[in-house]
């Protein structure tokens, strides 16, 4: 059976940058092993399968796969699929839509750019939570192929955080240190593989562009993602780490994260979060997506 698919580049205004995404929009009837095989065939960081929603008031139900595993939630698939579904419906003005993922209903806001690109912002359904500590700095550095002296940012400690998908967050002193990270296959999973394949978000404050607050990379080789150009689910959890640092006061905050630079896939993830009475009340992830290809797959 021929099923329509699209590919998009997400967290970018331009094609051939950002994070590539495949979306199979006619996925009803596909079994899980075949979905996983199709995701391996596309070999993008994630592939989304669009299914009828369980709640008829919602837009669609999404199943999200890396080349190696299914995910309950992911940021760039949510942004990209929300943009695509709105464009396919011919939306010419801003609109709200809700998609269902493994973590529950995800509310999205779509804003059109033109017939092939748009912007989406979604509210994170599960607020970030700290889910564990990480080994000593020397072990982290060894697993990332850098020196222990490269590790650290004042006020931001290495830790595991999750907003639906757990990540290991490792601060680095400089952008050069981030660029020199090379996951060591002999030690990476031993250090970071806590309860499953390791997913590591390394970051620093050193940036070159206005509107960018952090420079980052993300590695998840055990998930079939040697490096990810843009990781919205990690950015969502990152808001929890920023709040826990105590540096953010009550109010609305906006943070820009540049990722994918070292891969030649520059991406911009926009993180918004609100603090009231010292408590983290909400987190949102936003970005732009552009359609790149359209076709059909036999499955």
Overview of the structural elements:
The chain has 299 residues and is an alpha+beta fold. The chain folds into 2 domains: 2-122 and 287-298, Roll (Diaminopimelate Epimerase, Chain A, domain 1); 129-286, Diaminopimelate Epimerase, Chain A, domain 1. The protein has helices at residues 32-42, 75-88, 137-144, 175-179, 188-192, 232-244; strands at residues 2-10, 19-24, 46-51, 60-65, 70-71, 95-101, 104-114, 117-123, 129-132, 159-162, 166-171, 200-204, 214-220, 225-228, 251-259, 267-276, 279-298. An 8-stranded mixed barrel has the order 1-2-3-4-6-7-8-17. A hairpin with a 2-residue loop joins β6 (95-101) and β7. The radius of gyration is 18 Å and the shape is globular. The mean pLDDT is 97.
Q: What is the name of the CATH superfamily of the largest domain?
A: Diaminopimelate Epimerase, Chain A, domain 1
N-to-C SSE series? EEHEEEHEEEEHEEHHEEEHEEE
Write down how many β-strands occur, each being a DSSP E stretch of 2 or more residues.
17
Estimate the helix proportion, in percent: 10-25%
In CATH terms, what is the architecture of the largest domain? Roll
> What is the straight-line distance between the termini?
5 Å
The low-confidence runs, each spanning 5 or more residues with pLDDT under 50, are: none
Structural class: alpha+beta
Spatial order of strands in the largest sheet = 1-2-3-4-6-7-8-17
Question: C-alpha Rg, in Å?
Answer: 18 Å
Number of domains: 2
Average pLDDT over all residues? 97
CATH class of the largest domain: Alpha Beta
**CATH fold name of the largest domain, please?**
Diaminopimelate Epimerase, Chain A, domain 1
Given the C-alpha coordinates, what overall shape results?
globular
- The total of helices stands at 6
In what range is the share of β-strand residues?
A: 35-45%
Largest sheet: 8 strands, mixed, barrel
